[in-house]
Amino acid sequence: MAESENKKASVLIVEDEQDHAQVICEALQRIGYRCDVTYNLAEATERLKKKKFDVVVTDLMMEGTRQGLQVLELAQQQNPPPPVILVTAHGTVKTFKEAKKLGAFDFIEKPLDLEDFRAQVNRAADVAALQRQNQRLEQQLQDQLDDQSFEGIIGASEGMRQVIQTARQVAPSDIPVLILGENGTGKELVARAIHNHSRRRKNRLVTLNCAGLSENILEDELFGHVKGAFTGAMSEREGRFEYADNGTLFLDEIGDMPAPMQAKLLRVLENGEVVRLGSNAPLQVNVRIISATNRRLTEMVEEKHFREDLYFRIKGVTIQIPPLRERREDIPLLIHFFLQQASEKHHKPVERITPEAQQVLMGYPWPGNVRQLRTTVENMVVLSSNPVLGIESLPSDIRGTGPAPAAGLTNVVGVSLEQLEKEAIRNTLKMVHGNREQAAKILRIGERTLYRKIKEYDLGELE
């Protein structure tokens, strides 16, 4: 049987037949579980009050009554409640339904098939591990959401911590901010967080996406026009600069702005005045500029596709948002957050995602970044017919994918198994930035095995 991290789980065994209790205990200890054995309801009650267990295995009938249901009720009072497996020689459909209503995880009849029983305990331990992870994720989410500085920015990776720290530092000032990142990384979310925690937060945050707009349309959008300025101008219209006065103007995809408009924008940023189309009267505006682009502006400046003077005017402080594939350790946290959001939005009681499905999502390259992950999780929730998202819930274009092959090992003919294992561990540790718990889950080995392999292959420098 493959080793699993769950074999570290603690199991409470409640069984009034001492010989049978020892058989259960030894069967689980052989595959690595830690077991506490009690022989009656009173002892079980005392243990459950003093200690948290990952899994509870209890006989249904003890001392001639169904005391196992009382053990089940006591276990349900823990937070999170451990999965409870009921063992009985008197199983009936009615009893099983009653136990399920009370929260029983599963039901097995005597005499035990030890392999089936171990498989049940393994499944229960998987659920318990996921419950613990969900609690940790919920606490991380709550800690971040309780931090009123930058609510809504989800991520605990080093890259995202740097993003949050820089955004927090620049928010109170009026310095221009340039946000760089691929499509879908959350550039507008960061811009909104900066505005919401600036001195201008009581005034407007106005957004304009510059991509695909001609010079004439951009000029009208930014500066507005007076009545009769052009055919169809039936009334005057204020531009985005005026509308954002004393607030913040977010210019998304500024790298797509046509060259003539770059010059006009530069003049406004230098003198703080805009002139509506068809007018000669300058209007004074007080606007903070936050810009964003998925382009490499430094290269565009070198190639004369973007004005150098405008670049230095807008860059002020630069924030680089890493793509999701470079911060995979944030994916479980994001999945949990989006799952909660989608469940509430669509009134679907989806509670969790299986470790196997989460592993696939962690291995996917996410070309659309966080936006694509959010859409994927939302679609999975909407289309799900049960409270657990599994492999079968994944979109067909994602299902079955995993971490990309290690560099240099795409052709494995003639490569030793030892080298394959070493490279698999090395690349997985790099992918999760040294997080052993996540690496072990992806590799489907126990953490103790991973520790041993890290030492054996001298991979400690990757942690």
Tell me which CATH architecture of the largest domain applies here: 3-Layer(aba) Sandwich
The main sheet orders its strands as 2-1-3-4-5
* CATH topology-level fold name of the largest domain: Rossmann fold
State the domain count.
Answer: 4
At the fourth CATH level, what is the homologous superfamily of the largest domain? P-loop containing nucleotide triphosphate hydrolases
| Net shape | elongated
Task: Give me the secondary-structure topology.
Blueprint: E1 10-14, H1 18-29, E2 34-38, H2 41-50, E3 55-59, H3 67-75, E4 84-88, H4 93-102, E5 106-109, H5 114-146, H6 158-170, E6 177-180, H7 187-196, E7 205-209, H8 215-223, E8 224-225, E9 237-238, H9 240-243, E10 248-252, H10 259-271, E11 273-275, E12 282-284, E13 288-293, H11 297-302, H12 308-315, E14 317-320, H13 331-346, E15 352-353, H14 355-363, H15 369-383, E16 388-389, H16 417-431, H17 436-443, H18 447-456
Parallel strand pairs: 1-2, 1-3, 3-4, 4-5, 6-13, 6-14, 7-10, 10-13, 15-16
Antiparallel strand pairs: 8-9, 11-12
Helix pairs in contact: 2-3, 5-13, 13-15, 16-17, 17-18
Can you walk me through this structure?
The protein is an alpha/beta fold. The protein folds into four domains: about 5-135, 3-Layer(aba) Sandwich (Rossmann fold), CATH 3.40.50; about 170-320, 3-Layer(aba) Sandwich (Rossmann fold); about 325-395, Orthogonal Bundle (Helicase, Ruva Protein, domain 3); about 415-460, Homeodomain-like (Arc Repressor Mutant, subunit A, Orthogonal Bundle). The protein contains 18 helices and 16 strands. The protein has a five-stranded parallel sheet with strand order 2-1-3-4-5, with helices on both faces. Helix 1 links the parallel strand 1 and strand 2 (about 35-40). Helix 2 (about 40-50) packs parallel to helix 3 (about 65-75), helix 5 (about 115-145) crosses helix 13 and helix 16 (about 415-430) crosses helix 17 (about 435-445). The chain is elongated, with a radius of gyration of 29 Å. The protein starts with 9 loop residues before the first strand and ends in a 7-residue tail after the last helix. Mean pLDDT is about 85; it is low at about 1-5 and about 400-415.
